[in-house]
Structure formats: C-alpha cells, structure tokens
Write a structure and sequence with these properties.
The protein is built from 17 helices and 14 strands. It is elongated. Helix content is 55%, strand content 13%. The strands form 4 sheets. A 5-stranded antiparallel beta sheet has the order 4-3-7-6-5. Strands 9-11-12-14-13 form a 5-stranded mixed beta sheet, with helices on one face. The protein has a two-stranded antiparallel ribbon with strand order 1-2. A hairpin with a 4-residue loop joins strand 13 and strand 14.
Length: 650
C-alpha cells in the first residue's frame, strides 16, 4: 500500500513537471527573446503547440489523481487529434495548417517547417493520450496502457540519451525535425508513471518491465548507431576497417551478441520474477491460512520473547482475557496473571533461561489467569520453546477451563447429594417399615388377648406410618420423574393451573379455615413444561397450608404472578409460621424439615421445588415477612408481552 502511494505521488510530480515545462516554453515563445534564441537555440526546441499539449496532459494527470474520470478522458481527445494530424503531415507530405494556427514562431530552430513537431514527438503524443484516456476511463491499468507507456519511454529515452552522446538520429528521425530536449523529459516522466502506476494490480511485475525498458532502449540505440554509421559510409564513401574486418560487420556482431545476452538476461529476469511472484503468492496464501487457523482457534495462542513481552495474540485471547490485542501486545505477559504468578513470573523465566527446571515449558499445567476486570479464573497452560533466526520465543496455548471446573464441582456436589439422598432415603424408608412391623406384632398379641379397643389405636399408628412411607415414595418418584422425564413445552394458563392445585389440597387438615386467594390474571400464560410447573405450584401451596399458624385468627394464602424484565414471577405469600432466621440457610436442602413438630413430611418438598425450577431455567427464592413467608419462583418468559407490575408491591 505504501509503494502504491509513492507511485501516486510520482503521478502528481509528473503532472506538475509537464505543466511547469509547458508554461516555461510558452512564456519564452510569447516574450520573443531573439538574442536568447541566437545563443541558446535548444531552449526553443519545443514548439508552442507542443507546450500547450503537455500542459493539457499534466492537468489531466493531476485530475486523475483527484479521482476524476470523464474530464481527463475528454482532455486527451484534442491531444490525440493534434498528434495524429502532425504525424500525418510527415507521412503524407501535407500541410494541415495546425503548426502556426495558434502562434507564429519568431524564430525556427532546425525544423522542416516553422512550428512543426517531429514525427516521434507526434507518435508519443498519440500513445500517451490513448494510455491516459484508458486509464481515466477504466480507473485501472492494463496491458494496452503498459505497452503504450513502454513505447513512449523507449522513444523518449533514446532521444534523451542521443542528446547526451551526440547521436543525432536518436532524436532526429526526419532531417531538420527533431524531438526537443524538453519533450524528452516530459515523455520519459509520463512513460514511467503509465508503466509503473498500479502495475502490480494488473498482474505485471515492475522489475520485469524495468528490464524490458532498459533492454529495448539499449537495443534501439545500438540499431540507431548502426544505421547512423551506415549513413555516414554512404554519404562520405568511407569504409571503416580494423585488421581487415569491416566495422559495420563488427558492430552488427556486437548488436546481435549483446542483444542475445540481454534478451537471455531479460528472459531469466522474467522467469525469476514469475517464480518469485508464485512463491510470494504461495507464502501469502500459507500465511493467510495459518492466520485464519490461529485467529479462529478455540484456544488462546500467545507468543512472548525472552523478556516475557507479548509479541502476538489471537482472537481467542481477547475473548478469554477481555483485552483488545493492542492492549496486550508490547506488555509483559504477567499482566494476564494474578498473584502469586504475577510477581514470580519474571524470576521463573530468568531462572529457566539460566538452566533451571521447567515448571510449565514443555509440560503444561493448570494455572490461574486474570481477566481485564480483575477476576481470576482457572486455565490450562501449555508452553513451547521455539528458536527463530537465532532468537528464542515462547508460544503459549491457553484454554479457559472455568466451565469444566464448574462442572467438576457440580459433579462432586451431585455425588455428595446422591450419597446423602441414598442414605437418607434408605433410612426413611426403613423407619416406618420397621415401626409398622413392631406394631403388627403388638397387634397380634392384642388380637389374641381380645383387646380390640387398643388394637384400633395400633392400626391407626400403622396407617400413619404407611402414609408417611407412601408420601416419601411419592416424593422420590416425583424427584426422579422431574430429572428424567422429557416433556415438550407448550402454553400454560397460570390461573387455571393454580385453581386446580388449590382444589387438590382439599383433603389436607384445616384447609377449609384458610383463606386462599388466586390473584393470577386470567390472561396470563407462560411457555413451559406443564407437569414440572404443576409440581412447582403444588409444592408451593401444600407447603403454605402445612405450615400455617393454627393460632392465627385469619390464616391466609395469596398467589400472584406477573411479568417483569423478561421473566415470569410466581409468588405464594402466607401469614403462617415462617422460617426461623437460624434455619433459613437450610431452605431447599434435602430432608430438612424446619418445623418437624408441626406436620409430618419427608423434607423433600422445597428441594423438589427448587430442582424443578432450575430444570426450567429458573430459580426458587425466599423472602421473610413480618408475619409469615413469601416463596417465589422466577422463570424465563419466552412470550413477548409487556411487563405487569406485582400487585402485591403497588
């Protein structure tokens, strides 16, 4: 990109040079300094019309660098017409009257007719105008433009060198009609910018084109020298000899040999440049492929130097650590480490370089990283040592294992919970069975002795044990079903579901003296799994009924539901016994009964409630009240509705 910008600056320089040369020449012609023309005739080699043409070309070139398209293309039309008419005058021996149409020269310096430009100058105007027309119209370089630019440069460069070595034929193709020194400088500059600007984009290599320019100019000069020598032999009847060999024959051999050598070198240069381009393209493709793999890698890849300074990072590092690449590159890698790694890293790296033992390099281990927000997290780190051009760098592969560690911890907790569940379940299952077996033995003795009144009491106690056992088994079934059952989500009408749950509690003791109010709006629905949601509502209500305060004159339970912040909140509020502050940390734990003397149960109700809510992507919460409790279930709301305020908090 920097190289292309340099060539665009060269375009501006060439345009300014053409304008400056043209204005200077016009000023000379208009001022008519006869004495200056007599002493320095080469200053008037460029004609008035030619000066106007180079000004137009220079202005068009500047317009193209500004992004104009149609204007510079149109400006090239009169320049081409001027060159074509001027060349036709030489080819067909006519006078079209354009030489003195705009200005009559006060002096004439070696021209066939006053104001007439040389045929090579006319040809260059035609080629330059066509090349710039195509460049302006197409907004890119192509092979035609490059060929025209090459031809222009070769003709102008040959004329320029002809002035330097006094080879008249190089610039004087038609006797008394030569390309001026000023024109050669303009055409050389224009040929260069036409050939080399945007060249790489068109598929040509600048080094190859430069070789072609040099070789073609050289061969053209040799051919012109050969022709000039032959013209002198013909004109003066001179035969150049050296040791019996004709000089023209020697020169011919020199031309052929040097041409063959130069051509061979040029072919080699071309083939080498093509091979270099292919290698560069393959390397660029390989680098792009490698960069794409690294940037799209799931794991973070960091490279550091021997001092611990970060050299490169991939996109995953930004996701893992939260820093932008510019915030990491150039800083010490310990910025990504918490203590004690942060303080010990430089010492560890120094000790390793002095021959100490590798703790991470070539081994890999679990360490802690530090994000931009200061939060530490676990990660896997594997470091490799790499030697590159005599320098040592270290490449680190980092993987955020926060989720894995969380899953491991969750698995440990689940296993511990499962062990506790198995132990407590087996204990609670055996207890009522053992009690009932004892009562059964006592009942047999009573039956044998005829104590029928006491036998009824034993049977009631046995029935109570079996109810407890059945209740525990039902809870275990519910818990297992909630974990294993696959159920599709569908709309659930909350008010109707709450009403059904209230009706299902009619068998519980004292339920008739409790005022249960269903405040759920009739239109409120949620997309959820109905069975699990039913378990949640049933446990909320049964818990509130079981633990109502028998001393409360007006026991009450209020059920509300509303939407807010993309969630649905269902709350059951009562004025019952509440939860003692010292026991609140045991809420939602397995087999924890906070009022064991108030009502029998397995202690699984609130645990099932919380697990059911979590399986639906929500959570169970508790809020203490001045009198009683408020249990809350929050679930994600997939319906797109406006939020409703909590009626209990208005």
């Amino acid at each position: 990109m920097d190289r292309e910008q340099s060539w665009r600056k060269a375009n501006v320089a060439a345009g300014l040079w053409c304008i400056a040369v043209g204005i200077a020449v016009i000023a000379l012609w208009l001022s008519e300094p006869a004495r200056l023309a007599a002493h320095y005739p080469f200053l008037f080699g460029m004609k008035f019309n030619s000066a106007l043409a180079v000004i137009v070309i220079g202005a068009a070139l500047l317009a193209m660098t500004r992004g104009f398209r149609h204007l510079p293309a149109l400006m090239m039309v009169p320049v081409f017409a001027y060159g074509a008419v001027a060349l036709a005058q030489h080819l067909f021996g006519i006078d079209a009257g354009i030489d003195t149409a705009l200005h009559t020269p006060f002096t004439d310096i070696r021209t066939s007719l006053p104001g007439r430009i040389a045929p090579n100058t006319a040809a260059c105007y035609m080629m330059v105008s066509v090349a710039l027309f195509l460049r302006a119209y197409r907004q890119k370089s192509d092979a035609v433009q490059i060929v025209l630019g090459l031809a222009t440069f070769i003709i102008a460069a040959a004329a320029f060198i002809g002035y330097a070595i006094a080879l008249d034929f190089a610039h004087d193709w038609v006797r008394l009609s030569r390309m001026s020194f000023q024109s050669t400088t303009c055409f050389v500059a224009l040929g260069i910018v036409i050939v080399f600007t945007d060249t790489e984009a068109s598929g040509f290599h600048r080094a190859t084109l430069a070789g072609i320019l040099g070789l073609a100019t050289y061969l053209l000069l040799l051919a012109m020298t050969y022709y000039e020598l032959g013209r002198y032999e013909t004109s003066f009847g001179i035969t150049f000899t050296s040791s019996g060999n004709n000089a023209r024959s020697t020169l011919s051999s020199l031309v052929l040999i040097s041409g063959a050598l130069s051509g061979g070198l040029l072919v080699h240069l071309y083939l080498s440049s093509r091979r270099a381009r292919r290698m560069a393209a393959d390397l660029a493709e390989s680098q792009a492929r490698l960069a794409a793999i690294i940037d799209n890698a799931v794991d973070g890849i960091v490279t550091i130097d021997e001092r611990g300074i970060i050299l490169t990072v991939n996109a995953a590092c930004t996701r893992i650590f939260g820093y932008a690449p510019r915030e990491m590159i150039g800083n010490n890698v310990k910025m990504l480490m918490p203590e004690p790694y942060h303080g010990e890293h430089d010492r560890y790296l120094s000790n390793y370089q002095r021959g100490g033992a590798a703790k991470v390099i070539g081994i890999g281990r679990e360490v802690e990283g530090r994000r931009k927000d200061g939060v530490s997290f676990p990660l896997d780190l594997a470091v490799a040592k790499v030697e590159v051009n005599g320098a040592t760098i270290y490449s680190g592969l980092v993987r955020d294992i926060s989720e894995r560690k969380a899953n491991e911890q969750a698995l440990i907790e689940a296993n511990a919970e499962l062990e506790e569940f198995a132990y407590r379940t087996s204990h609670d299952l055996r207890s009522p069975i053992a009690s009932s077996m004892g009562l059964l033995g006592i009942s047999r003795e009573m039956l044998a002795e005829g104590e029928h009144a006491a036998l009824d009491q034993m049977l009631q106690r046995m029935e109570q044990n079996f109810r407890r056992l059945d209740h525990l088994i039902q809870n275990i079934i519910t818990l297992t079903r909630n974990r294993l059952m696959e159920e599709e989500e569908r709309p659930v009408a909350l008010r109707a579901l709450v009403s059904e749950a209230i009706d299902a509690l009619s068998h519980l003791d004292d339920v008739k003296r409790i005022r249960i109010e269903n405040h759920v709006p009739a239109e409120l629905t949620i997309i959820s799994k109905p069975s699990k949601f039913q378990v949640i509502v049933g446990n909320l209500l049964s818990n509130a009924v079981k633990y109502h305060d028998p001393k409360e004159a007006e026991p009450a339970i209020d059920i509300r539901a509303f939407r807010y912040g993309g969630k649905l909140r269902l709350s059951v509020e009562d004025n019952g016994l509440g939860v003692p502050p010292a026991s609140r940390h045991l809420l939602f734990r397995m087999f924890k009964r906070l009022h064991p003397n108030r009502s029998f149960g397995s202690g699984l109700g609130l645990y099932i409630l919380k697990k059911s809510a979590e399986s639906l992507g929500g959570d169970a919460l508790y809020e203490a009240r001045d009198k009683g409790s408020r249990f809350i279930i929050e679930l994600p709301d997939r319906d797109k509705h406006e939020d409703h305020l909590d009626p209990g908090r208005r």
